[in-house]
Amino acid sequence: MCTLLHIWLVVLSFTKLSHGIPLAEFYPFGVSQGDSDFPKNDDGSSPVVTISTLFPFFNNQHDSLYVNTNGVISFLRTLSQYTPDPFPLSGSRRLIAPFWADVDIRNGGTVWYRETTSASILQRATDDVRLFYPSQSSFVAAWVFIATWDDVAFFGATTPDAATKRNSFQAVLITNGRHSFTIYNYYEITWTTGTASGGTPAEGLGGTPAQVGFNAGDGVNYYAVNESRTDAIINLPRLSNVHVDGKFVFRIDTETIEQGGCNTGGTLTISPRYSHMFGGEKKLLSGPCIQSNDTLTAVFGRGASSINCVMHSQFSVACVTPIFYTTGDVSVALTVTTSNQQSATYEGMITILNPLNMKPVLQRLDPSNWRRGDEVTLTWSTPHIPFDIEGSYVEIYTIKPDLDHIPRIYYHSKAVQYIESIQTEVTLTLDTKDDVIVLSLVELTQGNDQTQRQRVWSDAFVVIPKNITESKASCTRWQTTDDQLPSLSGVDVQVCPCRLDQAEIDLVRFHPDPMCQSPDGSQQSDADTSINCLVHPHAKQCFRLNTPGTRGTGQLCCYDDNGSIMNMLTSSGGGSLQRYHYFGDTDDAVPYLSNIVYDTAPYYHCCAYPHLFQSDVPSECYRFHQRRTPGNCNEYVPNTPAQNFGDPHFVTPDGLSYTFNGVGEFTLFKTKTNTFIAQVRMQSLGTTGNQGSVITSVVANAANASDRVEVRLNSIRGFDILVNGVLEDITDVQFLRYTGVIISILDNPSTTNNHTKQVNVAFPEQDIAFQILIYGSFLNYVVSFGQGVKRGSIEGLLGNLNQDPKDDLVSQTGDVLPSNSSTEVIHNRMGMSWRITEDESLFTYAVGTSYDSVQDKTFSPVFDVPVSAVDNATRELCGNDTFCYYDYYVTGDNTMARSTRMSTHTLAKLQEISRKTVTCGFPPAVEHGQWNISGVDVDDTGKLICNSDAQLQGSGHITCNTEGHWNASQSYCVPSVVKATIDPTTEATGSTVTCGFPPAVEHGQWNINGGDADDTGKLICNSDAQLQGSGHITCNTEGHWTASQSYCAPSVVKATIDPTTEATGSTVTCGFPPAVEHGQWNINGGDADDTGKLICNSDAQLQGSGHITCNTEGHWTASQSYCAPSVVKATIDPTTEATRSNSWLIPMAIALASVFTLIIVILVSIVLVRCFCWKKSQAKGRDHTEFPKSTLDFDNAAYQSRHY
């Protein structure tokens, strides 16, 4: 029940006659404004006024109204009653009552009314609502209705003095279609009562005075001004609830009437409630009344520095938010210090949103081409700029780690000096050496303004380098930094689904990547029509985890146009393990910033950017993959779906379908330990005497682990979301996180399904999620159960989740019904047993409703559809869908019938997607190459494509087998082992020996410190395998890794159970033989006594016996066999095709003899020449002249250079 609320009262005088709002300050009225009036009458009303918009009032929409002579606007019927009854009233008397009393305009006065969408009136209404309701700072009026009682007299005013007693007042109705408000204006009130209500004939006082307020007509909901039906009501021109004499303002669209103005309760209301993490937004803080000489400061967040704020109006304070390095609810404290140094502090909450979940105001044109040093274009929509653009400027901020590796935002430079008001874009030069930056448009303020400046932001982004050298340098710097952070080896994180359709329905564990376009077609990041995902341009859609993994890690899963998961080690790119989830929930992480600095930027520089310059997989990307291996999707286990739709039809997670129509509140399901409870509210719905019911509300809660979330229909707003019983304002918000629960809101992208919105509610820690489709009069939903929900652990209307549909129909008392029971039996013996008690209810009850008011234990639905009711029109609408037949027969609602038929098809698809199938996931990573696979399902194949500077070793082919593994392949890509180097002074060729990557090893990987001579490697086995051998290799001077017999052996004993005796037996297996470079083992099996033969490549020779045997201990017998490559390659004589010898002894001897002979010839020649010259100089009688020293030095240097 609603109690009378006290309003602020100021008595200006003790006289009964006093003026309030001057008529000139009323909303314009009268014949000059095009108003209507009606004939002089007593107790009459206007004709029905059909209004051009739906007007929300007491949680109901109205498309017509009546203006009644007796000071009332009514909605459901006219009102001729002249003596006001006390509120609340029933009988459909839904009233807006500025002054309900016995008005008689036969004795004088006029009643005017009109609806208007005049621009000037709408602007005035907008300003009034924003002034008196600072929390409605974004409100824009769309429709106004003005009713004015101008100089009206009272009934029984028959004397000359009584005829001069007149009242003038006005009611203004305002709405934007979602919220609605009423303003009462009073100029003068000189009488309160007609004589028929006990008033005096001379003065119109006494008796039963006027009533002022609002009445819902249900006998429950109402609001009345405190002075109603008392003599004090004559003081209305001197009263107010907004500190303006003669004016009252109310919000009236919900079940509770909300007063405007300020309060002294100490609680702040902050608008808008949601704020960008980067700050710079103006917030209106309302609650206390503000004086012009008050000093105002605010603190955003515990322990933060205070900032200066300014008076916005007598009802609110304006503050500009600082930069936050956190998300979620942040405390706000406003301190108001009066001129006499008296201070009071008021507290409230603001919700900081992750920038990745907000669409940036500043949009980057062609964002995939923002290259360092280039001119780029920044755009915006002027209505989205909350300040005067004239004189504003653009600043560049960099995002980089501090000394503790925590990313921070740093000012870099001013990129544009002056923006004109007519501009909607600007060109600037991307002049920065930093990798990650963000741009800001900043308002121009006066020099003496001590408040912070408003600003709007772009997305944070990675700058494209000028060339691949820059890209690789950035990648190298990241590797150095990453090595200083804890290793991610062994981190437990949820793997990706192998297919897009699995990811799309896995609301428990994943949500769409905000860097991609949302499934409903919207996009959080900058628009680029040529790509769907900015960071992964070849992806159709990417997904991120709902809950961070161990140590706050994330997982990014990307899918191509075929719906297949994408591999990072391909030219198209793909997702990866991420050191920091973009939620940033750990102490060492900042939301969004840590992810873009430590995950997104490295992926750009190590993988994405190099692909702009080369088609091969860069070695940097391979090393990135080693640090960010995403895990294998073949380990993914799909969720199990359940569903409810239409005139409620239930499909349990075990696959049983049935119909149950109750009216009241019921247990949808709960865990048997009561750690998780979900309940539904059903309300009756039917036509032509038939009886059915629909779901109108769903509520769920994880005990002591999550907030309580309720999604319920609302006739005005479509639906409401309540968290812990509090109605959430979800205007312009699509993604919200609360304790233990994530809520996302999507528009309907479907052209075949006509629901208005989709609300996803995920409880990740409980492995449970709801996909709720909002229709006009009912809710449909899908419940997903992950692997964390134990089989057989739930009970309620959705059965028991034990993979057996035959025992799903279980009553609360434990009685099990046959799965083929009739609808009537199911209703009476199972469904009704799950009605909840008032103590069990999780629902929030609106004013005027209660647990008892929504129950109907006597409700009896239609159980069967007569055969005669299924006519051709029904079959055309429903096909062969019997649930559709039922809904159309019971409700006559085409929308419901179509939604039911669509839900049946959706369920079949969900069940198919949710079946666990065998997949192989990604093939093992290969350095210097990439696998080109046809898919990841059984019998899909793959081919190894080596980089242009590497050669394929092995067959290069793999196939996905029926056990979910790629068949063993010893294929790998070997880079050229000798890299030519040129001496710039002589152009003589030298060489550097490299070994490339070691041979692949199943169940493990080599951890190497390089690939040059003397570099070493250590074999790291998977957690389910053990190292056999030393596990160490070294790159020798011939460009080969030293022969290693090391390998990783999986568990050699596989337990088997004899189904008749339950005795445990064992089978000995050896697994794969150790890998051999330049060859492969050909084995006839892996069990005891199986054998293998070593087959060397065509350019290598067998050394050793080449035979091994699997022994009874599960090991291959030790073999010293290996494949030695030929040192000298055979050459073919083109004329004879004869092959020259591969022996190295003869060519070596010939080469040595040739060199020795050449040296002797050179020495003899020098001696002969010098002798000749000496003899010649003696014959001419000249002195001996030496060669210039410089020439000798030059020749010696040249000689030494050539023979270095």
UniProtKB/TrEMBL annotation:
Keywords: Disulfide bond, Membrane, Signal, Sushi, Transmembrane, Transmembrane helix. Residues 1-20 form the signal peptide. Gene3D superfamilies: Complement Module, domain 1. GO terms for cellular component: membrane. The keyword Transmembrane helix applies. Residues 467-628 form the AMOP domain. Residues 918-975, 993-1050, 1068-1125 form the Sushi domain. Disulfide bonds join C946-C973, C1021-C1048, C1096-C1123. The chain crosses the membrane at residues 1144-1172. Residues 640-842 form the VWFD domain. Pfam families: AMOP, C8-3_MUC4, NIDO, Sushi, VWD. SMART domains: AMOP, CCP, NIDO, VWD. One of its GO terms (biological process) is cell-matrix adhesion. Residues 98-255 form the NIDO domain. PANTHER family: MUCIN 4-RELATED, SUSHI DOMAIN-CONTAINING PROTEIN 2. This is Sushi, nidogen and EGF-like domain-containing protein 1. The lineage of its organism: Eukaryota, Metazoa, Spiralia, Lophotrochozoa, Mollusca.
